[in-house]
Amino acid sequence: MFEFPESWAVGTDVAAAINSAADWVIINGDAFFDAIKVPVLLLLKALENLLLWLPWWLIIAATGLLAWKVVGRRISVLSVVLLLVMALLGLHDLAMMTLSLTLTATLISVGVGLPVGILAARSDRFEGILRPILDTMQTMPSFVYLIPVLMLLGLGRVPAVFATVVYAIPPMIRLTNLGIRQVDSEVIEAAKSFGSTSMQMLLKVELPMAMPSIMAGVNQTIMMALAMVVIASMVAAPGLGIEVFNGIAGLDIGRGFLGGLGIVILAVVIDRISQGFAQSKRTHTT
Hints:
This protein is mainly alpha-helical.
């Protein structure tokens, strides 16, 4: 009487139903998934080839100049020093592969998350439906994302991108929704009184005033995408994550530490610069 009756447990049946649904999707959606792999792979390879083609010193110099303009001299010097350290450790090419994957996932997340966040801000019902989905996406263990991705897309860069997008897109949607909802109602009423259409309201009032929150969403999306790169290496995604994974698999502490250090350096540099963009938008708006 103290144990749950085994006959009542339906976990096995639910798992079997999920497996049957997944098999149906794999069989019937093969052409669709092949089609969406092509543009993602083209974008990823274009970014990767560009970053690997550019001279290492040019990338470091451009990053330093960008940081100087957006954040300031101190962060600019810090960025240059950290990127030089990464180059001296022989991690530059691997870092560019990781950066291309991160940028591809971020672009897709922003391209999908921004309009979804706008729709959520316009409809309380849609936001109510979306909220538990986003909660599930953010709390589900990231390893779980690899199972459907592997089944639908196989191994390689593209599945890593899609797994990263699923993990990284929620903050983009949430902060876009939040930013638009926090636009001052008096400003909205003033724009309506001047005869602004719904599209004009969105483009000229809501999005500009919500831009600090949207940029914060971009920042969080980039950070979550970088956090996913080690797990993405389990589906054969190249870059710094594979160094960490190989270090773990071979009990090579040094190799794993260097790969992790490269990820930290990328995260620090990108985080400081993207936060600078968000802060400049906030200052401009106020």
